[in-house]
Structures are given as C-alpha cells and as structure tokens.
C-alpha cells in the first residue's frame, strides 16, 4: 500500500497516484481544474474532427457533376466556397502579396486567422488544420515507435531540427519577394488539396469502382441493387461519375505517405519540422494574450506533460516554455498531477521564451538562398520562358500572363480537381522547376469545355481570373484562346492514308467551326496485289481533308482528344496564339504593337 502522506522524497509514482485521487482546484476559481481542462481537450478533439470533416466535404464538393450548356446566360458556379481554407491561409496570402505586389481581396479571411493567433497562439495547428489532424490521426492509428517510456519523453523534448520550418519560411518569403509563389509547394492546406484530391480520391475511386463493379456482376439481385446504389451515391458525393487520372499522382501520393510515415520517428513530424505556415503563426503567437504559466517548485519531474505534448514546446518544469512551438492542445495541463501548468489570459512571461530559436546568420543565409534561387532556375532551365517557350505549357482559360501566373499560382490543385473533363494536370518540368505542379492542359486526356469557367471560380489567388461564360465564348468580344491546333499530315488519315475521316471537324465546338475541310477526290487501292504480282485495282474515293483556321481556333483540345489515331494524334494543340500573351503569337496581323507593355 502507498504511504498515507508521502514526503517529497517519496517515489513520484505514489505522488501521481494520490494526485489523481484528489480534485485539483484552481486558485480562486472554484472549478475542478482537471474537469475544466478535460472539457477543453474534448472540445479540441471535436473541433479537429469538425474542421477535418468540413475540409473533406468542401474537397469532395470541388467537382462538377451536372451538364453544360452552350448558352452564355446560364452561369455555372460552385455552390460552396470550396477554396475557403486556402483563402484563410495567411502563408498563402503573404506569398502572393510579396510575389505579385498586390493583395487578392479573397485573402482578407487570413487576417481573421492572424487575429485568432494573436489572442490564443497557434490554435490553428492544434484545433483547425486538416493536415495537422491527419498527422494526429495517423499517430493514433500507428503509434510512434517510441511508445510512452523514456524514449517518448526524449522525442517530445524541444530539438534543434524544429528550426528548419523557420528557415523554410524565410527562404520561401524571399523567393516570393523575387517573384515566385513556389512556397505553395510546402503549404499544408495546398498539400492536403493536392495530395488527397489528385491521389487519394482517384485511388479510392479506382479500387471502389472495380470492387463495386465486381459486386454488380454477381448473379444476386440484392447485391447488384446495393452495388449500383453505392456507385451512384459515391459518384454524386465523393468522386466524379467517371474515373479521373492525374499525371504525377503516384509521386504526390508517395510524398504524402512518406510524410505521414515520418511520424513513427518524430511525432507530428510535419508540424514540428517542415511546416512554413506553422512557423509563420509561431512568429505571431509570441504576442498572444493566452499562454502558459508554470509553478516550477511543484514539479516532480514525472514527465507526463512531455509524454502527451504535441508541439515539443518544453512544458515541463525547470525550463522555459517555447510559446512559438505550442499547438495549444492542452494535453500537458490535463496530464500534470501537481497543478504545475496553468493556461490563462495575460500570463506571466518569466518562464516563457517567445522568440523562435533561430540563428541570425543562418536566417540571413536562407533569405539570401531563397532570393537567389529564382533567378538561378530561370537562367539555368532550358525550358524557361525567356529562352524557349515550351509548347506544352497550355494554361487554363483566364490565366494571367506567365510571369504573373507564377507569381500567383500556389500549386493547390483546386483547378485540376474541379475540371469536369480531367483536362488539367500538374506540370513536372514543362514550365521549368519554378512551374512544378502548376496546372497545364493535356488535351489527349481531356479537353477544355467551351462554356466552363470553374477553374477561375475556385482559384484562391487570382492566378486564374474569374471570367464569365460570355468572355470565354466571345459573345460581343473576342473569345479567350488558350492555344492553337495543328495537323501532322503524315499521320492524318485523309492526308496520308487516303482514308475518310472528319471526326475532328465534327467535334470542333467553335461557331463558326475553326476546322474546315477541303473536298478532294483521290485514287486508292481497291485490293491487294494478286498472287502472280498483278498490280492492285484502283478506285476513286471522296476525301475531306481538314484544315485549321487559326483566327477561329481557341485551343480547347477537343480535336486532339477525339482524334482516332491512338498512339500520337494527327492533330495537336500548342500554347501559341494564347490570349494572355503578347509575344506567344501566330497571327502577326492580330498583334497590337501599340499596346502598353
């Protein structure tokens, strides 16, 4: 049996047991401290679950499951603000503001998150962030290899590698000041949209679709009915009616799995080590009105606070608390049996470190590296815009000029997720290193729907402008062009093989059609050579050889998509002639040399 009144020298385990028996009360509050803080912990868990569910609901809603009309007066928009989490992201707002020297009005929501941080600290990381919640859930399902012993305590101490996220933040901000929003590659909300939207959901669709199709093939009426109902429900709520594919989705998904797997070695790996948004919020949290106070004299070094700490912010007694690292999970106060830790408004700062632990020289070096990286990749990349414009870089309709596009695009993949024809895909190096995972159109997979403007509707930064159907279709004005189609006569059936085919002309959506046909009569072989080498018979055939009118072609890619030549289409679209560029032109007579810029 434990002693009835243990002395300070008694084993700490008995002190913890007795501490759990007695109701702890805050001085002057009259409320049981453990009950109150446990209620807040459960509130945090409910907040995490609620915001994660909201994020997934908005991500699944980032899809068009209806039909389009050619009427310009029929506006088709997203019913919900599916880009809401990105609009409230202060890291994204700061990146685009520095890179473009302007502020997109939708980003005003990020000010609310900064205000919340100035009051409560990094509550976004512990209560709201869907990527943080995903890491938390992964650690719960696949616990860290450190368990809950001394190794777990050591893992949750503050470590020097936690500075890395601040250096990444400084480098990305410097790169933004140099004119590139490439830091969006590391933004946690962008990662969630990109990885889940382009990898996880299509993979689930592939597995689920094949599984339900196999169930539908069974000779059992009830199973078939349930399978059909499930397919209809999932196609209307989770994924698109047909299977979507995205370039580099395997790589994007593998990076997500690798990042989650790192939680086995460093708890909350992304949040502690790499997250630039968490670093930015950590800089602002130093001014927070809500924080921790410690009574070091009461601490018995039981280390229960460290066992359950999410941020590795040194909650234990005898050391100073790292306010910029704390996720406000409140686990430390719940676990503490001695009432050492208290969270309150306007706490004393004697046992608090507010500034991030970064070296001045290293911080300056990362700033310099980030600023220097952008001109270096621009002059070294053979596919850069200034030296060799890659014809495969076909941007979505409404995209701003390429340099401005790279200043604003955060690689969130919202436009790719919402594209109804699966036409937009993440670029690899087509637009250079700086353009990694920015959207490009691959017409062979899907073409740009003529009356669709959803990509601009969901873009959170203005990289793709919010145009309407009249602007895109060219009603009362010139239509928006994203490229021009060309023919490879050596592969085109009517041109090279004297075989009738007008599929491209039939599918051309412009009015009048940008593809017109030349009527010709030609002689073709009617049979193969005879057994004795007799020449084959010949016959006359009427052909319609297609041509492109570059003044009418909008580069939608419908002709390339439907071309019956399977391996490499006989008609293909390049970016030349796009509306957004004054230099990437094909018809010189349409160029306005007196235009400003």
Characterization of the model:
By secondary structure, the protein is mainly alpha-helical. It has two domains: 119-369, no CATH class; 402-524 and 537-588, no CATH class. It has helices spanning 12-21, 33-61, 84-87, 90-100, 109-120, 123-128, 130-141, 150-155, 164-177, 188-216, 221-237, 249-261, 269-274, 276-285, 304-307, 331-335, 360-380, 402-408, 414-418, 454-458, 469-473, 493-496, 503-507, 558-562; strands at residues 290-294, 321-322, 341-345, 352-353, 424-426, 439-441, 484-487, 515-525, 538-548, 571-574. A two-stranded antiparallel ribbon has the order 1-3. A two-stranded parallel ribbon has the order 2-4. The longest helix has 29 residues, at 33-61. The radius of gyration is 30 Å and the shape is elongated.
Sheet/helix structural class: mainly alpha
Shape: elongated
Structural domains: how many: 2
User: What share of the residues does DSSP label as strand, in percent?
Assistant: 5-15%
Q: Any low-confidence stretches, pLDDT <50, length ≥5?
A: 1-31, 591-597
Main beta sheet: strand number and arrangement? 2 strands, antiparallel
State the end-to-end distance.
86 Å
Which whole number gives the mean pLDDT?
A: 86
Strand order of the largest sheet: 1-3
Based on DSSP secondary structure assignment, what is the total number of beta strands?
A: 10
Helix content: 40-55%
Q: Gyration radius, to the nearest Å?
A: 30 Å
The number of helical runs is 24
Give descriptors for this structure.
mainly alpha; two-stranded parallel ribbon; 10 strands; two-stranded antiparallel ribbon; 597 residues
């Amino acid at each position: 049996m434990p002693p009835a009144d243990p002395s300070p020298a008694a084993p700490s385990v008995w002190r913890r047991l007795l501490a759990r028996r007695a109701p702890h009360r805050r001085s002057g509050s009259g409320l049981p401290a453990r009950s109150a803080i446990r209620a807040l912990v459960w509130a945090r868990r409910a907040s995490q679950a609620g915001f994660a569910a909201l994020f997934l609901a908005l991500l699944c809603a980032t899809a068009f499951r209806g039909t389009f009309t050619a009427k310009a007066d029929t506006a088709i928009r997203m019913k919900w603000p599916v880009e809401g989490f990105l609009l409230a992201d202060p890291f994204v707002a700061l990146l685009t503001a520095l890179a473009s020297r302007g502020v997109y009005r939708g980003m005003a929501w990020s000010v609310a998150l900064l205000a919340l941080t100035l009051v409560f600290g990094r509550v976004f990381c512990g209560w709201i962030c869907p990527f943080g919640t995903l890491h938390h859930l992964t650690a719960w399902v696949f616990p860290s290899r450190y368990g809950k012993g001394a190794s777990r305590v050591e893992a949750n101490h503050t470590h020097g590698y936690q500075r890395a996220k601040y250096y990444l933040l400084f480098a990305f901000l410097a790169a933004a000041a140099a004119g590139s929003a490439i830091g969006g590659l590391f933004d946690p909300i962008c990662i969630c949209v990109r990885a889940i939207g382009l990898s996880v959901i299509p993979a689930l669709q592939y597995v689920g679709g094949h599984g339900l199709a196999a169930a539908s093939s069974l000779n059992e009426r009830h199973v078939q009915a349930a399978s059909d109902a499930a397919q209809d429900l999932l196609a209307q709520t989770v994924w698109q009616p047909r299977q979507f594919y995205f370039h580099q989705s395997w790589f994007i998904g593998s990076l997500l799995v690798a990042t989650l797997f790192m939680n086995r070695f460093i708890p909350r790996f992304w949040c502690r080590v790499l997250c630039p948004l968490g670093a930015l919020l950590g800089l602002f949290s130093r001014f927070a009105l809500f924080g921790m106070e410690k009574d070091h004299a009461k601490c018995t070094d039981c280390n229960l606070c460290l066992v359950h700490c999410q941020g590795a912010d040194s909650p234990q007694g005898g050391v100073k608390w790292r306010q910029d690292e704390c996720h406000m999970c409140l686990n430390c106060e719940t676990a503490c049996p001695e009432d050492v830790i208290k969270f309150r408004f306007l706490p004393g700062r004697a046992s608090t470190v507010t500034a991030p632990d970064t070296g001045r020289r290293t911080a300056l070096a990362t700033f310099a590296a980030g600023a220097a990286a952008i001109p270096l990749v621009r002059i070294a990349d053979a596919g850069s815009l200034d030296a060799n414009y890659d014809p495969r870089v076909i941007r979505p309709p409404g995209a701003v000029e390429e340099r401005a596009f790279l200043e604003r695009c955060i690689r969130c993949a919202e436009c790719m997720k919402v594209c109804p024809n699966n036409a937009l895909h993440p670029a690899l190096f087509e637009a250079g290193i700086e353009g990694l995972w920015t959207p490009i159109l691959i017409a062979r997979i899907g073409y740009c729907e003529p009356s669709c403007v959803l990509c601009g509707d969901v873009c959170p930064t203005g990289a793709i402008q919010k145009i309407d159907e009249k602007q895109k279709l060219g009603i009362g004005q010139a239509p928006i062009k994203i490229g021009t189609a060309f023919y490879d006569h050596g592969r085109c059936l009517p041109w090279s093989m004297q075989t009738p085919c007008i599929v491209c002309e039939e599918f051309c959506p412009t009015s009048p059609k940008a593809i017109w046909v030349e009527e010709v009569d030609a002689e073709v072989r009617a049979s193969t050579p005879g057994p004795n080498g007799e020449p084959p018979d010949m016959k006359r055939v009427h052909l319609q050889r297609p041509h492109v009118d570059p003044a009418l072609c909008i580069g939608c890619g419908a002709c390339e998509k439907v071309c019956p030549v399977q391996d490499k289409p006989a008609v293909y679209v390049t970016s030349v002639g796009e509306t957004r560029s004054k230099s990437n032109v094909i018809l010189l007579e349409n160029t306005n040399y007196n235009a400003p810029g």
